[in-house]
Amino acid sequence: xxxxxxxxxxxxxxxxxxxxxxxxxxxxxxxxxxxxxxxxxxxxxxxxxxxxxxxxxxxxxxxxxxxxxxxxxxxxxxxxxxxxxxxxxxxxxxxxxxxxxxxxxxxxxxxxxxxxxxxxxxxxxxxxxxxxxxxxxxxxxxxxxxxxxxxxxxxxxxxxxxxxxxxxxxxxxxxxxxxxxxxxxxxxxxxxxxxxxxxxxxxxxxxxxxxxxxxxxxxxxxxxxxxxxxxxxxxxxxxxxxxxxxxxxxxxxxxxxxxxx
Length: 261
Prior knowledge:
mainly beta; 1 helix; 15-stranded antiparallel β-sheet
């Protein structure tokens, strides 16, 4: 695992932004790539998760310790159930270079249709350019770890801030390594495009009506650069609250939340 982190630093990263500027990547040229850039591993432009953030009440993806969200899920495979998300706080990232720290987020899903308790542990980091990246993810089913996924570079998870102007898009290509519970490995190289479609959007959820949402679309691309059918997701993000709704491969609707300061 450690070797992949070293290779990522040596090879550089393909992360390209375009459209409006502001606190998110902008311009026509390559975005931050490699040491000293804003998107990569912690210590390479990332924010220390132990630092106080005076703009936490405005972030689109709060990562404050103790914050919780409950979502109503409609899944075509696993049926209807709830997802409980809790920010557990700063932790060292397993398998990463010593001192690499991310914010550990725990997700619990009681998938009633299949009778499976699914848990996800995700190490995340808000970058100084306004993107949130995912460093490592561990999946558990009924208390047994069944899969670990890492990326080189860290893959984009969400946006923490809206761009100053539209249109805005961001394309990332990563190397993804998945280690299954039996030790077998799978490699892939997915490419995703993120687009901010609208700002100031009104969205209704079970947790209430929000009038200041940012509408974001994530598309997975094939080798020809075309959008893979059925692999599109749309997110509604609200400053100081986070994700309030998701549509695409499944539907997630915010039922309740408690954001810690």
